[in-house]
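Q: Structure tokens for this one, please.
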Amino acid sequence: MSDAVRYELRDGLAVVRLDDGKANAVSFALLGALEAALDRAEKEARALAILGRPDRFSGGFDLGVMRGGDQAAVVRLVAGGGRLALRLFEGPLPVVLGCTGHALAMGAVLLLAGDLRIGARGAYKIGLNEVAIGLTLPTFATELASARLSPRHLQRATALAEVYDPDGAVEAGFLDQTVAPAALEAAVVEAGARLAAALHPGAHRATKRRIRAATLERLRAGFEEDLAGIGTVAS
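A: Here is the predicted structure, written as tokens:
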């Protein structure tokens, strides 16, 4: 665990808080700490809740790495993000995400990988803005988008890089509902506790993997192609 990732167990619900004091960038340190939190949650919890910091869920990958000129480091970071999204999407625990504010690029991908997504209302930006900054979306992002976004919004949210406010993100499919910012943590914890108490772990795990099997197969099949094309900038 790192200082940016805090873990708490509440009656079968693992509550994980992300707070690096900045934009909650997906860095090597954050990925490692989140993987450790998931390891622990899968051993001792029946559901998982992940919350961002006030006004920031995640601004996406660490720009210091993405713009640092070390292509090998970029590949490792994006691969780590893809593996984390895959783990959340197919994992055994029901995952409730509390979107506390802005969620862009990899931050929005994490929303697509959760089971239940609750967002704070406000002047926040949520979306896959990669195309607007010259990056091709990796297969893990497009597959998750295809699985979770409304068909009416899929092209707008991916190929056209449309960014939404929280209520628009509900319509598009990044979020399932919004609440007042002051009510967000309670809503997320309540939903996670309800799922922890109500769901049979084995039945939940098997059903989730069954309904997502085709997406998971395509996601894995495209992963090597993702890594080869990471960092591609449109001409």
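A few notes: The two ends are 40 Å apart (CA to CA). The chain has one domain: 5-196.
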